[in-house]
Design brief:
Blueprint (H helix, E strand, L loop, with lengths): L3 H23 L6 H8 L3 H7 L3 H13 L1 H12 L3 H18 L1 H13 L1 H11 L1 H17 L8 H17 L16 H18 L4 H4 L9 H12 L18 H13 L4 H6 L2 H32 L1
Helix pairs in contact: 1-2, 1-4, 1-7, 5-6, 6-7, 6-11, 7-8, 7-10
């Protein structure tokens, strides 16, 4: 048999679920405690035993809704292994949470419009901690070249939350655009919208290759490999135990190496240090000098022959 504590917890959860649905559908002011009690199937005094007032019930509903992230987000970040996987895990969990019960999104949107000051305090208390975590992750991705350089981390999070909450909350009305009259197709239509929502959020954050799932090329990878080869197979005459500096330490050497390995077989100083016009002029001048030298040699040889 269930204990009194577990039974009390079960009734409280049923009350919170019913209040979430009614507050989202009718609004806080238009929802009475009696209507919530009727939806749960209990008497009003029993409801007041769990939640002493209507304001306490509203606060409990919103606390349960917003505290979800404090439990889920750390697990998502620990389970992810790369930047894109982190993003996909967070955005998919966010969308799944709100699509599982669209009244959650409707309630947040209604409360944000009806009571902005109260919602501001709740959002700062519950959402700000994980928003700071995601902001730092976006900054690290921007420094590593995975995230677009012009992304503002805090502003992006605000717009991403609005995108998810608003699009799901208004799906039954605005989401009807482009769908058939067959209500049985709603689930398929919702999945289409969710997939597009994730795509938009990803494309606006990551660089093009990263958004497509292609990891950006590490510009220093070739330099590291060459440094390792130089360390294990040093040229003859060089101390094998001598310190090998990483090419990235010396910018000129690094850039020269990249131009040499990526642009062709010519040394980088010929490819990037001089223009082709200068190379052509040098070759022509050398050829002319060679012809003049040959003519002078022939002239001197003929004069010596005549003199004899």
């Amino acid at each position: 048999m269930p204990s009194d504590r577990s039974e009390k917890r079960e009734v409280s959860e049923r009350i919170l679920d019913a209040a979430t649905r009614l507050f989202a559908e009718r609004g806080f002011e238009a929802t009475s405690l009696q209507s919530v009690a009727d939806a749960v199937g209990i008497r009003k005094p029993s409801l007041l035993y769990h939640f002493p007032s209507k304001d306490e019930l509203r606060k409990a509903v919103l606390d349960k809704l917003l505290s979800h992230w404090n439990q889920v987000l750390p697990k998502l970040l620990m389970a992810a292994t790369s930047g894109r996987e982190q993003f996909d895990a967070i955005i998919k969990e966010t969308v799944a949470f709100f699509t599982a019960d669209r009244d959650r999104a409707r309630l947040l949107l209604r409360e944000a419009l009806d009571r902005p000051k109260e919602m501001r305090a709740l959002i700062i208390g519950h959402v700000q901690p994980w928003a700071d975590v995601v902001s730092n992750y976006i900054r690290r991705g921007r420094e590593a070249g995975r995230v677009r350089a012009d992304v503002d981390p805090e502003a992006y999070i605000v717009h991403a939350i609005n995108l998810v909450v608003s699009s799901i909350a208004t799906f039954d009305s605005i989401g009807a655009l482009g769908t058939s009259k067959d209500r049985s197709a709603d689930d398929t239509h919702l999945r289409r919208h969710v997939d597009e929502l994730v795509r938009v959020a990803r494309a606006s954050l990551f660089r093009q290759l990263e958004a497509l799932g292609i990891a950006p090329r590490d510009e220093h990878e070739e330099d590291r490999r060459d440094a390792e080869r130089a360390h294990h197979h040093p040229p003859k005459g060089r101390n094998p135990h001598a310190r090998v500096h990483h090419p990235a330490v010396h910018e000129r050497r690094r850039v020269g190496h990249r131009r040499h390995t990526r642009r062709g077989s010519l040394p980088w100083r010929l490819r990037g240090g001089f223009s082709r016009q200068r190379l052509v002029r040098g070759a022509v001048a050398g050829s002319v000098a060679l012809l003049v030298a040959r003519r002078v040699a022939r002239r001197v040889s003929s004069l010596d022959t005549k003199g004899r």
